[in-house]
Structure formats: structure tokens, C-alpha cells
């Protein structure tokens, strides 16, 4: 019989340290085509409520 699984159990701290280091780059930002605010790509603009040059969400002004 050969060894199939891991020899010792990995602690939660060691596992979480390893899993925490995969996302190191900042999210890419694009400019809104209507108001020019920085937004994440393929998302509705929080400033003016547009997506793909169309009004999608009604934004209340303060």
C-alpha cells in the first residue's frame, strides 16, 4: 500500500495564509461614457445610472 493522502493535517492558519495571496492586482477601472466617473467594467455607473450608453437606474440627486 502506498501513501495516497497528505501525511499531516494542514492547520487553518497555514491554509488561510496560502489562500490569501492569490489576488494581488488592483481592479481595473474604466471611465463612464456619459459622466466620466471611474467604474468597474461591465457595471452600472453609480454616479449617473447608465450602462452601455443607456439609462438603466434612476439616480436620486441630493
Automatic annotation (TrEMBL):
KW Ribosomal protein (keyword) present: yes
Assigned keywords, A-Z: Ribonucleoprotein, Ribosomal protein
Superkingdom of this protein's organism: Bacteria
One example of a Gene Ontology biological process annotation: translation
Molecular-function annotations in GO: structural constituent of ribosome
GO cellular component terms, semicolon-separated: large ribosomal subunit
Ribosomal protein found in the keyword field: yes
Sequence ranges of Basic residues compositional bias: 9-20
Protein family according to the UniProt entry: Belongs to the bacterial ribosomal protein bL32 family.
Name of this protein: Large ribosomal subunit protein bL32
Gene name as annotated: rpmF
